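Q: What does the assembly look like in three dimensions?
Context provided by user:
Components: two
Sequences:
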Amino acid sequence: MGRYTLRRLLQLIPVFLGTTFLVYWLVWGLREDPFAGKCGQRECSPAFRAALTERYNLDDPLIVQYLKYLGAVLTGDFGQTFSGTEVSTLIADAYPITIKLAIVALVIEAVIGIIAGVVAGLRGRGFADTLVLVSTLFLIALPVFVTGLVLRQVLGVDLGIIRTSVPANPSFAELIVPGFVLASLSMAYVARLTRTSLIENTRADFVRTAVAKGLPRRRVVGVHMLRNSLIPVVTFLGTDIGALMGGAIVTEGVFNIRGIGGLIYRGLQQQDIATVVGVVALLVIVYLVANLVVDLLYAVLDPRIRYE
Amino acid sequence: MAALLEVEDLRVEFGRGPETASVLNGVGYHVDEGETLAVLGESGSGKSVTAQTVMGILDAPPGRIIGGSVRFRGEELLGADPERRRLLRGESMAMIFQDALSALNPVYTVGFQIAEQFRFRRGMSRKDATARAVEMLDQVRIPNAKQRVKEYPHQFSGGMRQRAMIAMSLALDPELLIADEPTTALDVTVQAQIMDLLDELRRERGMGLVLITHDLGVVAEVADRIAVMYAGRIVEHTDAETLYARPGHPYTRGLMDSVPRVDDPGHAAGAPLRPIPGLPPSLAAIPNGCPFHPRCAYAQDVCVDDVPPLRELGDGHQAACHFAERFVAEGTDRPTTHEVVSG
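A: Here is the predicted structure of the complete assembly.
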């Protein structure tokens, strides 16, 4: 497994270089004038232009610009925005909030999703099963911004239980409702995946063996059925971590959370190229690492899978 | 000897409405202490369903027990408290399955699955239970048991896997072992080893053994008695010697004729095989009269109308055929069971 991990880590390098170069080229290379519209209605002053050209190495060929940028990123310098703020400061402010929100969402979708799936899967056709199937279908059908706006209106405005706008440095408790909104879709998928997987395993030969051994029912279910059924669920959750860590533009927008999703959204809107490239470079790494962890986790959960 | 297991007039259906399949139509057999009963029949004849009903692990629904009796040491099991039945499983009666690869849990080590019996049925510590698991693997002659106990089922060969399965089933010292086609998934040389092991363990422990199989060779070697099943009924029941020399049911005869043999002129090289014509009936539409009559070369009018009961022919030989006496008197020209096996 060690060699496999090393090989996978090495594979990350070309993927990282490829994706970041692509983004760099898209935002810097494809524009005729990177300063268009940066100084209101007027043309930017030659002094301003000269300063920024110097800052972003715009006189160099694109590939040299990229390599210089990459060198800086690798030493932790994500550059500055047009207005002179350090991009690394922006990321450092936004990322902890995104991570918190991602944790809340992950816990909600794992706990509620798995419990709902197990209840539905074990009871067979009946009220619980129908309830889970219908409610998950409902969540899947509903766009996230609708879920978010409805909950904000009902819980925040009508009932006054939560604040409609999350404070700048939110606690975990303040992120529960936004976390639920962010998790709702995946939670529905987790519940359905758990249910299907459990039902498939109910008739598995090794479950019949466990029953024939005379093991108590809770052990047959909790040990022999559940462990096998949760393999695909855990894999799904792992992949979802990557997505959650990438920020949540819609949820953050609805609840006014200052996370990484909002940062990248504002960066795009204001055409703040340095922010976009910096955040995307970071997210590429997060996503690739999350994927690697899922693959390794898969081998831990299922001993039949061995990476050589 | 006292009867360990008695099954009487067992009836099981699957499904509902017009699709209802009568899987068991009055099955009865008994197993004594230390004895081997072989249950022989084609796929779908009800061998496994009978075993699952005895163990109390029948999938219900779709399965439905509609009548009969299963007694273990005189205690009625059908309708008994589920907790009581659970405690009997593993402890008094155990079962091993055809395909050990799918019957063992792929995500736990073999040792874990054996030790589980000691931990959760005997309240042993994890360490003691694992030590007992190693002993069990030793008993079924798995070499290097100390190491192998930590391995997963997929790391075992087919034969070793079936041995591990046997070790697991015998952990709590059951008095009755039901082996559901234990050698079908194995290659021939390994089959013989597993059968020898089972036979030896049975003798050592004085255990009753129900051996479910469709392999005539396996049966001849180890069975004290043989019950032949067809369409959810026992159609013939006798000792191995008699069954081979004087089968009383044309179905049994057909089964034996369909085994290719090198020393039989009728089966010489290039001669066609002699399968039983036709297919077993659909259990949702079992023919009137004798269920075997559509495939039977000797069928008369009476076979179409009347179900032949399982009749005593003397010396404990029972057959469910209107003309059983005739077939017994004719006998077969085949050699004794011993020669069948060694040939």
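Follow-up: Chain A touches chain B through 22 residues (CB under 8 Å).
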